Every structure is written in C-alpha cells, then in structure tokens.
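Fig. S4 source data, part A: sequence.
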Amino acid sequence: MAGALQKNPEKTTMPLRNLFTPSTFHWVRAVALCLTGLSLLPGHHAKAQNTAIAYAYPVGKLTVDGDLSDWPKGLTKYRLTEDNGIKPKSAADFTAHYRVAYDPDNRSVYVGVEVTDDDHVVDTTKSPAWNTQDCHELYVDARHLPFGSGVAAFMLSKTFRDTNKMLSDPVSAAYSWDNIEARTVRQGNLTTYEWRVDLGEHVYPGRSIGLDLNVFDKDNDGFKVIGWGRGGYKFRTPAHLGDVVLMRANEGLGTLGGKVRWKEAWAQKLPGRVRLTSVKTPALWVDAKVDSLGRYTVQLPPGTYRVSTPGHLVQDKETVYRVNNETLAEVTLKAGEKKAVTAVGLITRSSPPDLVPQQGILHAFDAGKARQLDQFVAAYQQFYEIPGVSLALVKDGKVVYHKTYGVENSLTREKVEDNTLFEAASITKAVFAYVVNRLAERGVIDLDKPLYQYLPFEAMAHDDRYKLITARHVLSHRTGFPNWAYMNADGKLDIKFTPGTQYGYSGEGFEYLKRVVVHITGKDILQVLKEEVTGPMKMYNVHFSKNDELAKVASYGHYDNVPTTQYIPGEPGMAHSMYTEAKGFSQFMLGLLSGQGQQPDTYTRMLTMHSEFPREKGEKKPRYKSGMGLGIAVRESPYGPVFGHGGNNGDFQCDFEVYKDLKMGYAIFTNSNYGGQLCGQMKALLVEGKEEVAQK
C-alpha cells in the first residue's frame, strides 16, 4: 500500500519472536516489549520492495507554473496505482500520473503530476493541515546509496507547504524549500503539481536517484491515498522509493530478463527483487521485481550490469537467516536489444553465528576472554547489521569490562563513544520500580491501596474495575490495562481483565503510577528519581527527557541499518523514556545486587516472582520458571536466581541481567531493530554456555 503519511510518528516494534532466540524467549517476551510510540508503523518491517522504475531524459529549462504544455512531447506518463486500501470509485473520482525529466545545466530534476479528481478540497482555514484537504507529497533521495541514504520530502497544496526529512543524513537534512520551485493549478477536474528540485552535484547523466510521490484525496467517502511505488512512510524509508534513471539525450533502452531460485530447497518465498548495478558507473542501479516464479524483466540503458540479490535478513520460524549479497550474473546489454540471462541465478543464505562456548566466559574472565567477547560482538554486528553497541560486565561488586562498538549513525559513521547514550526502553520500568519500592518502605505509598484513592483516573471512570488497581498490580503487570491504549482499534484505554487476576504487560499502568507518585510526593518525577535512585546510586550518563546535553550525545536508532527519526521525549515516561549507556547504568545493577537503599524485606519482596510469564498455546513447559517481581523481571537458572529487565523500542533494543548468587551480570544496549539477537545470546556467552551443557 502507498501508506498514508503520518506526521512525527514515534516508535514501532517487531513481534518479540522476531527478536530473541528460543532459549531466551520466556525471559524477555514480557519485559522487552515497550512500544513507546503513539503510532504503530504498519509495513515498516515488511521490507516492502518498491521496484518501480522511471527514466528521465534531459530537457532545457522549464517554467514552473503549473502548466505542463512546455514539457517535451512523448515523455512517458507513469501511473500512480498503489493505494491505501480505499479504492477510487472511478477514473473520474481519483486517478493520477506523473512525468519526470532533468536539466543537467541547472542540476535539477523536474516532476509534473496530473491528478483527475471530481471532488477537490482546499483547506482555507488559518491553520491548514496535510490531512484536511487534497495535497501531494514528493520524496527524493539524491544520494541513492545502495544500502540506504536520507530522504527529503516536500508537501504541497494550494494553502499548505511542509517538509519532512531524515536529519540523520547531512545531505537530506540540508534540503529546504530554497532548493524547490513548486506550483499547483486547478482547472476543471484536473489538478497539476509542477516541481523543480535542485539536487546539485547529484544530478548527472548515467546514474539513478531515489524518487517517489503520493497524492492525497480528501473526499466525503474517505481519505484516499495513491502513490507510485510500494511501501509506506516513504519520508523515512529510502527502500520504499522508486528508482529514476537519468538517461543521456536520445539514449535507447534494452530489455533484460532472467530467472532466480534458491540454491538449496527452502519453503521461504523468493526475494521480491534483484538489483542491477552498472559495472562502469555503480551510481546507476535499480531494483527489478521478481515474480512468484522467480522471473524478472527490466529495461536499462546500454552497458554491462551486475545482477545480484541485495543482502537482507529473513525470519524462518525461530531463526533469522541472511540472504547473501552475491553476484548472480554479469551481462552486457545494447540499446534496443532483448536479452535473456541464460543461467538461472542461484540465491544463497547464511545461518546466524554459532559462537556460544561450552561454558560462559565471565566465570574466569581475562584478556583472552575479552578478545573472545569482542569477536563475538563483531560477528553478530556484521551478520545482523547492528550499527552500535554499549556493553558492561560486572563481577564481585565492580565493573570488570566495558566497551563500545560500532557507530551511532550508519550514514555519518560517527563512532559510539563512552558517553553515547541509547534508549533504554522498558529498562526504565526497573529504575522506576526501585523508586516505588523505596517509597513503599517508608510508607509514602501503600502497595496494596487502590491507586484511585490517591489520584482518580478520570479517563477510566466508566469502568469501576479500575478502582481495584494497586501499585503492586502495576509493578507485577496485573492491572488489566493493555500495553498502550493506541494498540486498541479505537485508540482508547480499557481494561482487559479484572485487575489482579492474571498477567498482562502494560506500560499504561506505569504511567498511571507515575502520576500517582508525583501527586503524593508533590515533586516533579525527575526530582523523585534523583533523590531516590540516580543520586544515591551515583548513576551517571542517564536522562529521562529532552535536554540540551542529551541532544548532543543521543544515538540514532536504526531499522534495517538505516537511521530512524530521532525522537527524544519532552516529558519523562516511567515505562520507556530513559537514555543511558552500559557503564553508567551498571551503577544501578551493582546497587541492586548489594541491596543498596532497601531493607532486607523490601529487597526480597521486589525480587520475588509475583507473576509467572504465561506460556503460549502449544508451548512446552520451560525447564526454569521466569516471571515478574515488583517491577524487576526474575527467573531461575542453572546458576541460581537471576534478575534484570529487557527493553525494546523497536530501533533500540537492550537487556541487563544479574546472577544474584554468582554476583555477576551484564548490561547491553544496541541501536538496531535486530539488536535483540545479540542481547539474547549474552546470558549463554557470558554465564550459562551452551544450553545443553547448562541443563546437565
């Protein structure tokens, strides 16, 4: 689907089964699910493969006035056919096509869009918006790097202009309306949008750029969207843009066809695309669609091309495999020629690293084990394309190893430093839970007193069951609230079961408890955190909401190795908003291990299992129990009790665990949607070794 534009979405997530190995699933499935955003981004992880291709020929300077009569005759008109699920009633109701050309002299790309629509809406209020009227958005990726680069998006209507751009890429971040000429004109049932986009040094013949467009139709029968290529959220996902080849004057096209299949039998669908890259000019590349039988056909300028499969990850049951980026063929094509690649391209895959030792390396940690650890992290980073990692190991009351790996931004390649901060996601809950347990110990809050008696929850007044909810229910995830209200079809908060009767992971519960704590203490939540936990435990490099210092050191998150829009919450959220790094956070781990700041009864109560994680249908009973204490996740292990918490904000994934009897543990933070694959192996690498050994 084209994907309706959504302004400033925050976070999304993958299903937990896509993030962690089977051996860690019980431990993390309920504690790592953060979903901090207000909007789920549908299709973001579906790896929508655009495969739309257009061909732009050089033209002289065109006048951008909304009149396309000065455009050269005979240019191809590309129809917009990808919709958001709301189909136009007829061609008169809503159809669109576009033309594209470029001027190498003024280094600009021209786009002319014509929309037929029998019901055109213009927002003439003082505050027009993108979704209150008919409008159009153009997306451009000037660098068009094979592994992804920044997108700049420009939205236009009669009364509205807006910009969306990936600030993680200096090139896209620099684009503004100063680079744009644009005009829209309405005549009868036809609306024309005309653009000139100055792309500077990135415009020259014999290369390709990324480009796409959506048109939005505000009618009485719904808000319709049609786009050129497949994939939503184009303003932040370069893989969801089509390819535009900048042709030379009078240059012809040849047609190339071929077929691919898996080298080894595999039930997985074939990749939806192959990539064709010019051997002479690698900046010329396009993705061609592969059908269900493995066939592809594509038109290209004359030249020699490398046919390959873009490397990517594929989930098959509990295992994530890598489809290898390999050359399937190399072929020379002439203008006007129709050529078939005779040999079938054989697509291969790689299995994930298998580097877990027989015994955990933290038991007798030395310089050799440190090198083994570094090699392990590097192998996982390479396989899963995890840009950055912050890791700390604790043992016998101190940090015995700390290291950062990789980059905080895959496009700029800025390194992760000791003070680079990662979203800690749901690990925030563990820090806040410690605070609540401290307050309960002093009688500031009663864990078993209904929270409404402290502070009514007006939005839930329609359901008296909410009056049963206590702080103990919140900390043990037994409130009955969903994780987040927006996950409900109507976006409203409700109660799924009678509070206290079963387990149900919920961030909403923690946010309600935060408001209660603020109310009964009469203090800002940041002050409470400083007084109760970050100050006493001497935690450093930790922030809970937006500030100037954090903005300078916050890492970018990544989906499929492409940086996401950086979102730092303006208000602290006790379910999700902490930023930190492994060494600074290890102070909290060491404090928990020693029982700092708590009476023995409080400490024991916090780390006692109050809710066992439920098994899914058909799932075998685990060898060791795992569940939730009072805000801290707990589990049994071959080495005694373990406590910790995981975190998953989608593009940031992290985990910490402490083995109570062994007095050792680890904290790991990553800036990738596949970081959980590395986090999930830490317990085996560092402490428990191969699972079959641990079970003896």
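Fig. S4 source data, part B ends here. The longest strand covers residues 207-219.
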